[in-house]
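Long-time lurker, first post. I've been practising inverse folding by hand and with some scripts of my own, and I keep getting stuck on stretches where the structure tokens seem ambiguous. Below is the full token string for one chain I'm working on. Before anyone asks, I'm not after the true native sequence, just a reasonable design that respects the backbone. If someone could post their per-position residues I'd love to compare against what I wrote down in my notebook.
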């Protein structure tokens, strides 16, 4: 298959298309009957060059019944550099129904209908991704009748899509990662605008920082679920933990990696970790990381306006669940500090006191119980030997 679309004339007029179509169809028939080379078994298919003889023309359009305009021109340069062309996927591998011109009659009346008809061709070669999408929120929305939910071609233009992942390691390529939030922004623009101002989104979009999460680190890609379920909420600290306990990553930014341990040790986190995860269908009213830090608008705690290191801001957060909380209320919580003699001396010493007191008390009781049992056995034996 030739990857170039050179040497073709640029002077076709729309009226000439039909003539060309007949010529191409004849050529294909000749090939099929083995007069021009191809194996006799192969069906009549058009080469990329043959398709591009028409679709390579610029400004080629068609007005659909919906009165929307369908652009029929395919940019030859972009297609040449696309992953599909580089991997030798031909036009007809996806457009399997088009074998000649005139094309088979279209049933789609609008642009969206056409997309919904054509995108199913992806599953022939990408069944893994296709199957994953089947129980995603987007697919469920689509099944519910809202055709605006994302399908393959909303996120991947089949004619221009570049390689996204490394062919060997499967890791996402750096340039592609930066583009992800923009892909989602086409339909979730408000969230994107918020995300862009967050500590994560700002680092990605302004500094090309690759360590921060994009939309898909928190939501998944092809199997995006409902983020408002109780189980998603309960599992969510794990998403944050995947990066925020990684000291190689966090040391670069001088951010503490104690945040998850201290959260789990805290009364809020402890209840979530110990009890509620075992019955994930129950709604939890305890805070998870994003109740305090925000979701798409996470800021540095030291942010002068919105940072929750500021007591006033933190108090607002607590008041959502502790409405009676007054200005001193946040002091009742140690934040993410691991208590030490300097920061929380009372907690620190009380902690140690218990660490010593509890083993001593329990150990003492055990000793007492055991010696009592031994004593009783000895007494019993003595009694038995006397009678
Ligand atoms: C002779 C010129 C010509 C050739 C060759 C041609 N097309 Fe078309 N194509 C058109 C025109 C004109 C339309 C506008 C709709 C119509 O008239 O069917 C079109 C429409 C389309 C559409 C829009 C949907 C539809 O069915 O109308 C697709 C997809 C398409 N062509 C793909 C291809 C592919 C793939 C090839 C090569 C296998 C190809 N075309 C070869 C002229 C051509
Ligand atoms: C990887 C699969 C794939 C390949 C390869 C492919 N197409 Fe398409 N094509 C599609 C899909 C899917 C659509 C529907 C796009 C959408 O939803 O907007 C489409 C749409 C079109 C359209 C309608 C206009 C548009 O852009 O929506 C034309 C014309 C077309 N293709 C021609 C071609 C030609 C010519 C080639 C080869 C140079 C080609 N296609 C290669 C999958 C493919
Ligand atoms: C005839 C087979 C075929 C069809 C149909 C097809 N693709 Fe592909 N696609 C490939 C091949 C081969 C690659 C090369 C990468 C690979 O090895 O997976 C690829 C690569 C990709 C990549 C980049 C993958 C990466 O890891 O970088 C995306 C995204 C993609 N295709 C999307 C689509 C979409 C969307 C459709 C439907 C419109 C589609 N493909 C239809 C064969 C196909
Ligand atoms: C909501 C946007 C979106 C939709 C819808 C979508 N993808 Fe993707 N896809 C992505 C993103 C983002 C990536 C790259 C991220 C990653 O996987 O690391 C990707 C990656 C891929 C890859 C590379 C391999 C991989 O799994 O990472 C292929 C192939 C692919 N998609 C095909 C498809 C096909 C086929 C469909 C439809 C069944 C589809 N995608 C639907 C956004 C989407
Ligand atoms: C073509 C438009 C489109 C694109 C692109 C798109 N989405 Fe969606 N998405 C929707 C629609 C429509 C819904 C249904 C619920 C709604 O209206 O918000 C939805 C729902 C969701 C939901 C479930 C939320 C809810 O309200 O139930 C999540 C999460 C989501 N999308 C994330 C993403 C992510 C992440 C990306 C990018 C990788 C993305 N979407 C790309 C249209 C899109
Ligand atoms: C740090 C993790 C994280 C990142 C990054 C993230 N989200 Fe979310 N997202 C969440 C959580 C958690 C929820 C659930 C919020 C709730 O309980 O209402 C959510 C909710 C949503 C919803 C549904 C509820 C709503 O607010 O409409 C959509 C749609 C969505 N996210 C899309 C996106 C998009 C698009 C991006 C990228 C621009 C993104 N998310 C980035 C964690 C994240
Ligand atoms: C994919 C990795 C990743 C995930 C997932 C992630 N983060 Fe981050 N986070 C980072 C990185 C990297 C930084 C540092 C960014 C910078 O300073 O430029 C950061 C910064 C922060 C900061 C600001 C710290 C400071 O002192 O400036 C907070 C707060 C934060 N993240 C909270 C969260 C929460 C809450 C979640 C889960 C909902 C989460 N993060 C998920 C990587 C991640
Ligand atoms: C009850 C509210 C609350 C919860 C729940 C919470 N945090 Fe925090 N977090 C704070 C406050 C207040 C600060 C700022 C004061 C401080 O640094 O201790 C902070 C600071 C941070 C920082 C910045 C640390 C640094 O070194 O700059 C990160 C990162 C962070 N939290 C992540 C998380 C993660 C991840 C979770 C869930 C595992 C979580 N937080 C749960 C309130 C909370
Ligand atoms: C999403 C809701 C929510 C948020 C936000 C929240 N809490 Fe709580 N908190 C609870 C619930 C529910 C309990 C009861 C825990 C239990 O019984 O296991 C609780 C218990 C407590 C307790 C134990 C004493 C008591 O009143 O039962 C303290 C102290 C506390 N929270 C402090 C805070 C502080 C300080 C903040 C703000 C930084 C905060 N909480 C934010 C829901 C929340």
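-- Answer (accepted) --
I ran through it position by position. Result:
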């Amino acid at each position: 298959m030739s990857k170039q679309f050179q040497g073709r004339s640029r002077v076709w007029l729309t009226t000439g298309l039909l003539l060309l179509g007949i010529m191409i169809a004849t050529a294909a028939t000749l090939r099929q009957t083995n007069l021009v080379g191809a194996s006799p078994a192969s069906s009549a298919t058009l080469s990329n060059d043959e398709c591009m003889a028409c679709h390579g023309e610029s400004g080629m359009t068609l007005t659909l019944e919906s009165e929307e305009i369908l652009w029929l021109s395919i940019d030859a340069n972009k297609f040449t550099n696309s992953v599909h062309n580089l991997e030798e996927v031909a036009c007809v591998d996806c457009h399997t129904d088009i074998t000649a011109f005139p094309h088979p009659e279209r049933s789609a009346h609008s642009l969206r209908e056409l997309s919904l008809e054509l995108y199913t061709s992806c599953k022939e070669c990408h069944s893994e991704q296709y199957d994953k999408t089947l129980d995603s929120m987007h697919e469920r929305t689509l099944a519910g009748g809202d055709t605006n939910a994302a399908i393959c071609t909303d996120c991947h233009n089949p004619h221009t899509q570049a390689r996204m992942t490394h062919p060997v390691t499967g890791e996402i390529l750096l340039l592609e990662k930066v583009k992800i939030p923009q892909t989602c922004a086409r339909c979730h623009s408000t969230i994107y605008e918020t995300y862009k101002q967050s500590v994560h989104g700002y680092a990605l979009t302004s500094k090309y920082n690759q360590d921060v999460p994009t939309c898909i680190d928190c939501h998944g890609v092809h199997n995006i679920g409902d983020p408002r379920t109780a189980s998603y909420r309960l599992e969510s600290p794990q998403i944050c933990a995947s990066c925020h306990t990684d000291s190689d990553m966090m040391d670069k930014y001088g951010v503490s990696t104690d945040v998850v341990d201290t959260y789990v040790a805290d009364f809020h986190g402890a209840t979530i970790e110990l009890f509620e995860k075992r019955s994930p269908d129950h709604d939890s009213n305890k805070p998870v990381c994003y109740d305090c830090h925000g979701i798409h608008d996470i800021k540095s705690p030291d942010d002068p306006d919105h940072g929750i290191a500021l007591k006033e801001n933190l108090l607002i957060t607590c008041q959502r669940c502790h409405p009676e909380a007054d200005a001193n209320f946040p002091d009742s919580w140690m934040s993410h500090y691991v208590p030490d003699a300097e920061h929380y001396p009372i907690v620190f010493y009380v902690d140690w006191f218990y660490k010593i007191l509890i083993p001593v008390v329990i150990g003492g009781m055990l000793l007492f119980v055991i010696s009592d049992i031994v004593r009783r056995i000895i007494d019993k034996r003595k009694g038995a030997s006397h009678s």
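A couple of notes from the structure itself: Confidence is low (pLDDT under 50) at residues 1-15, 26-42. Residues 48, 51-52, 55, 70-72, 74, 79, 84, 89, 91, 93-95, 115, 118-119, 121, 153, 158-159 surround heme C (ligand 2) (CB under 6 Å). Happy to go over any region you disagree with.
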